[in-house]
Design goal:
Length: about 250
């Protein structure tokens, strides 16, 4: 890629200003939309280097986690490319109909159940494809994501991010860009965890819940590592169906 021109955010750019925390649209999706609009209207052109993470944090008034997830979604859409040690560069202008599902809008039990139904539809197949296609490096990445999740069993709140990362590693191992794009579009809001899972409690029930999820993740990983597509599909289907039942129980 050409070096590109470094860019800040022009004073008259519509993407300037903190995001609206009261808006129904999630914080991450607001950052994605604003940056995509700036690429669409030519304020950010192919080859431009995006502002640094720190600048985006200050510009939008959001956390680094939100900025990183937004950049992940833009990368998945093929709008930007992040280069280690150099930053993120604009690749192309977005479609007027972007590929996106905003899972942050799912709040009621019925909406969360629909979200898991969607995940059942494509993550089950993604696991099977991963078992068929994944090379040793991709399988090692799934194992590493599993290990990270297992290390968070004593920290239920932190486990949500590690949970998403595990599912993302499976989608990545499939080698199918659309599985990955759809999951990145959903973001961490896809992990529809009941409130009880997010806080530590005296009797350790939340930690036990996370440990059960870790076991289900391990079943998915082992099937992929054995390159058994049917077992991988079954393990992912059981895991997501159990997640749906756990959500309904709360």
């Amino acid at each position: 890629m050409a070096a590109g021109r470094a860019t800040g955010l022009a004073a008259n750019a519509p993407i300037i200003g903190a995001v609206d925390r009261s808006a129904p649209e999630g914080l991450t999706q607001q950052v994605v939309r604003r940056l995509a609009e700036s690429i669409q209207n030519g304020e950010l052109r192919p080859g431009d280097r995006l502002p640094t993470e720190s600048v985006l944090v200050d510009t939008y008034g959001v956390s680094r986690t939100v900025v990183r997830e937004a950049m992940s979604r833009l990368n998945a859409r093929g709008l930007v490319e992040t280069q280690q040690g150099r930053g993120s560069f604009v690749l192309t202008s977005p479609s007027t109909v972007p590929f996106s599902v905003d899972a942050s809008q799912a709040r009621t039990p019925a909406e969360l159940a629909e979200l898991i139904e969607l995940r059942l539809g494509f993550e089950t197949e993604a696991a099977g494809v991963a078992a068929r296609r994944a090379d040793a490096r991709a399988i090692a990445a799934v194992k590493a994501a599993l290990t990270r999740f297992q290390s968070e069993t004593s920290s239920p709140g932190a486990s949500v991010s590690a949970d998403f990362d595990f599912h993302r590693s499976v989608a990545l191992a499939s080698g199918n860009r659309y599985f990955l794009q759809l999951l990145d579009s959903l973001g961490r809001s896809a992990i529809a965890a009941p409130r009880e899972r997010l806080v530590a409690d005296a009797d350790g029930s939340s930690a036990a819940h996370v440990s059960l999820v870790a076991l289900e993740h391990e079943n998915v990983y082992r099937a992929i590592a054995r390159r058994n597509a049917e077992d991988a599909r079954a393990a992912m289907r059981v895991h997501l169906a159990n997640s749906q039942e756990r959500l309904g129980a709360h």
